[in-house]
User: Fold this.
Amino acid sequence: MAHARPFKQLDVFTDTPYFGNPLAVVLDGSGLSDDAMQRFARWTNLSETTFVLPPTEAGADYRVRIFTPGGELGFAGHPTLGTCHAWLAAGNAPRQGEVVVQQCAAGLVRIRRDDTVQPGSLAFQAPPLRRSSPSPTVLAKVAAALGLKAHQVLAAQILDNGTTWLGLLLDDADTVLALSPDHRVLKDIGLKVGVAGLPAAHEAPALIGRSNREARAFAKSEHKSLMPAMCTADLEVRGFAAATGVDEDPVTGSLNASLAQWLIADDRMPERYVAAQGQCMGRDGRVRIARDAGGQVWVGGNSVICIDGNVTL
Assistant:
């Protein structure tokens, strides 16, 4: 029988409501069937909906199940940070000092407070990454679906950290922002595709160019005055996930985690940087990347609670 369960809806990778990636969190998923969870995730129609459950592994503070409208994920980044934020806001506390240990289908994920970077920020330890080269045939199909020419793709990798992406490093940030993919073809290919590109330079002219790109991205918006103050980003990212029922994900933690592990390891990005995502969807997400002295990549960002109450399930 359905009953009221504590519920929060958050915006992740932003400190300004409605400019990040929304997440629905059911803080008590006990007794819900897989079908019930999937049905609710389809109903919220968000890129992800999570359900918090008692842990079943030693050392975990809670267990989370993560659903898109199209199916369940083993791991995802913005649901990790958002669920942890909601869990802490509900009055819970980690067993191990300042580190929260989340259990998900991909294993245990450590999440730490990141207040030294920005108050209220959390960062998760990127899960181990497996990567490989995509087949030339698949790469050609994806490039065609994105409208890319061969010379615009600088590097490509299959990235798997509990969820799988085809990662593409493109020639620059302008190319990333200008993409208009054929989502039907991407869905048929069956791969989620993440694209990234660096601004042409990081000096003042690049900032002017970035401002112009963002102005174009928001040209149809009637609410430009409501945009939060922009901060400079070192990498522009977009994530296309038609394969899981979401044409474009606003701000994607799992993708940024795997991109960081790949690009830092290959000396294409520094050990600390800020990625921007969501501009083409009217969002302004910021993902903070840092690799520590032990070589572990941490993926951080802010979250804000937008809806707080109960849901009948």
